[in-house]
Amino acid sequence: MDFDVKDQGLAGKGLLRIEWAAQSMPVLRSIKERFAVEKPLKGVRMAACLHVTTETATLAQTLKSGGAEVCICASNPLSTQDDVAASLVVNDGIPVFAIKGEDKDTYYRHIHAALASLPQITMDDGADLVTTLHSERKELLPGILGGTEETTTGVIRLRSMAEKGVLQYPIIAVNDADTKHLFDNRYGTGQSTLDGIIRSTNRLLAGSNFVVSGYGWCGRGVAMRASGMGARVIVTEIDPLRALEAVMDGYQVMTMAAAAPLGDFFCTLTGDIHVLRKEHFEAMRDGAIVCNSGHFNVEIDLDSLSQMAVNRREMRDFVEEFTLPNGRHLYVLGEGRLINLAAAEGHPSSVMDMSFANQALCSEHMVRHAASLKNQVYRVPTVIDREIAKLKLASMGIPVDVLTDEQEKYLHSWEMGT
Ligand code: ADE
Question: Rounded to whole angstroms, what are the CA distances from 267 to 5, 310, 334, 364?
Answer without folding.
Answer: 31, 24, 12, 36
